[in-house]
């Protein structure tokens, strides 16, 4: 069996993946580069005992991992890193909030809206200023304070 290193959307290994490859080479551990664009993707994946991927903040990389991860783990029984518990909340403020709140971590009082009308009803009664965040965004992107 081989350790699979999944390429990103640019057809490259990210920096951590390059380090993993160096470790595998120096320890004489067989590995395979898994190309998500390859027609033989599933056959290549079946040969792996583990799958490693450094996903970035890019939506395409997230979609690649989501598309391949469940098949790798649930159908082919490949050990994946990141695993579901690590991957699931990544880059999603709503998931992160639910995860922290479910474990009783202190979090700022938050309101999550899944449709328009409850959001409008909240805004009509809210005390301003409020901070609004989209589920995704780093470095203050997609965050706005309304006065």
Task: Jot down its keywords.
Rossmann fold; alpha/beta; 6 helices; 147 residues; 2 domains; 40% helix; 4-stranded parallel beta sheet; two-stranded antiparallel ribbon; elongated
Question: What does the secondary structure layout of this molecule look like, with pairings?
Answer:
Blueprint: E1 2-6, H1 15-26, E2 31-34, H2 41-46, E3 48-52, H3 59-75, E4 79-81, H4 84-87, H5 93-102, H6 116-125, E5 130-133, E6 143-146
Parallel strand pairs: 1-2, 1-3, 3-4
Antiparallel strand pairs: 5-6
Question: How would you summarize this macromolecular structure in one to three sentences?
Answer:
The chain has 147 residues and is α/β, with parallel strands linked by helices. It has helices at residues 15-26, 41-46, 59-75, 84-87, 93-102, 116-125, and strands spanning 2-6, 31-34, 48-52, 79-81, 130-133, 143-146.
Question: What report would you give on this structure?
Answer:
The protein has two domains: 2-87, Rossmann fold; 93-146, no CATH class. Helices cover 40% and strands 17% of the residues. The chain contains six helices and six strands; from the N terminus they run βαβαβαβαααββ. The strands form two sheets. A four-stranded parallel sheet has the order 2-1-3-4, with helices on both faces. A two-stranded antiparallel sheet has the order 5-6. The longest helix has 17 residues, at 59-75.
């Amino acid at each position: 069996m081989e350790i699979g290193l999944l390429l990103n959307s640019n057809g490259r290994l990210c920096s951590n993946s390059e380090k993993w490859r160096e470790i595998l080479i120096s320890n004489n551990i067989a590995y395979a580069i898994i190309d998500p664009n390859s027609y033989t993707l599933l056959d290549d994946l079946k040969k792996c005992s583990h799958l490693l991927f450094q996903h970035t903040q890019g939506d395409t990389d997230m979609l690649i991992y989501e598309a391949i991860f469940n098949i790798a783990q649930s159908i082919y029984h490949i050990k994946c890193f990141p695993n579901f518990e690590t991957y699931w909340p990544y880059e999603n403020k709503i998931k992160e909030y639910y995860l922290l709140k479910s474990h009783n971590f202190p979090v700022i009082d938050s309101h999550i809206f899944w449709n328009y009308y409850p959001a409008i009803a909240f805004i009509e009664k809210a005390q301003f200023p409020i901070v609004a965040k989209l589920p995704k965004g780093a470095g203050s992107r997609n965050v706005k304070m309304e006065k």
